[in-house]
Amino acid sequence: MVVQVQEGLLTTPSARVLVATAVPVERDAVARAFSGAATGVRLPGALLCRTATGCDLLAAGVGPALAAASTAAALTAAALEGAAYDLVVSAGIGGGFQPGAPVGSLVVADAITVADLGAETADGFLAVTELGFGTVTHRPPRPLVRAVAEATGARTGTILTVSTVTGTAARAAALGERHPGALAEGMEGFGVAEAAAAHGVPVLEIRAVSNPVGPRDRAAWRIGDALTALTEAFGKLAPVLESWNAHDAVAAHDARGR
User: Fold this and answer.
1) How many other C-beta atoms can be found within 10 angstroms of the C-beta atom of residue 89?
2) How far, CA to CA in Å, does 85 sit from each of 36, 72, 82, 107, 142?
3) DSSP string, 165-182
4) Which residues in 197-226 are b (16+ Cβ under 10 Å) and which e?
5) Cross-strand partners of 42
6) What is residue 233's three-state secondary structure?
7) Helices marked H in 117-245 — which ranges?
8) Of 169, 159, 88, 160, which is closest to residue 117 (Cα–Cα)?
9) Residue 59, beta-bridge partner list
10) Which of 107, 103, 91, 98 is nearest to 219 (CA)?
11) Given its phi and psi angles, is residue 35 left (phi above 0), alpha (psi -120 to 50 degrees) or beta?
12) Are 55 and 21 in contact (CB under 8 A)?
């Protein structure tokens, strides 16, 4: 199977990169930054689009669970082929916390944090780590985050992963109070990061802001503009990926801990 994509801007990266989006329209927006055609590779439960320029694209599904499962399948298949990935990128559109991330802006995560994994109590929300389990945050390699932000003009901050998209001002305020560094929210980043961490692969998350976090006002959504911003961002990433030393990034990531 061959998936045709528009001729774009991105040249061959030196690192082997997997880009995981939620849905095909986001994957196709990323694909428009690449030249040539992408070959479809069937994975268990997912279709991987392998670009002619060396980057693999995956519509991993909506929500952290399916995104984690699909990303893990792609990582496992690559490892079994003896061609493990150097980097996983969770990419797509998402909500932006106002005024820090206005509609149309780009955010790159310095922390990928799951916002609603834990327990509600009479005294408020307790994260799963406060209950003595797991983790709630993955931190992408700082030098890579900085380089991506400089290349794309992205704002840097926490991107929250939620299983239920924020739809009220009260919840937006509560999330902002609990996570003062949050700039955006999406539904897949933490799941993708969990899969990457299990394979010892560094992770990034990049979101183009399509709507404000808060009350659902569809008239204020700018999905087309956000998808265009996503394409343009990936069109600027080639020099970053070409100059990035994956082994140094892994060492720095492990030294900081998760």
Assistant:
1) 28
2) 21, 11, 10, 23, 19
3) ---SHHHHHHHHHH-TTE
4) bebebbbbbbbbbbbbbbeeeeeebbeeeb
5) 47
6) helix
7) 142-152, 169-178, 189-198, 223-235, 238-243
8) 160
9) 21
10) 103
11) beta
12) no
7 pLDDT tier (thresholds 50, 70, 90): very low
- Tracing tokens 């995981």 back to the chain, one arrives at 20
| Distances from the Cα of 5 to the Cα of 25, 39, 42, 99, 189, angstroms | 12, 10, 18, 35, 25
Q: Of 26, 19, 14, 17, which Cα lies nearest the Cα of 192?
A: 19
Helix (H) or strand (E) holding 37: strand 37-43
d(CA 120, CA 63): 20
Cα separation values, 183 from 12, 23, 92, 108, 134, Å: 30, 22, 14, 9, 24
Angle of the 246-256 helix axis to the 142-152 helix axis, nearest 10: 120
Take residue 197 and report the two structure tokens written for it.
Answer: 């961490």
End-to-end CA distance of the chain: 38
Q: Based on the number of CB atoms within 10 Å of its own CB, is 107 exposed (0-12), middle (13-18) or buried (19 or more)?
A: buried
Check: pTM over 0.85? Answer yes or no. Answer: yes
Peptide bond before residue 143 is cis, with ω within 30 degrees of 0: no
Report the pLDDT averaged over residues 65-81: 93
Give yes or no for residue 6 having a pLDDT over 50: no
Res. 9 pLDDT band, cuts 50 70 90? very low
Q: H helices within the chain, ranges in order? A: 24-31, 64-80, 142-152, 169-178, 189-198, 223-235, 238-243, 246-256
SS3 10: strand
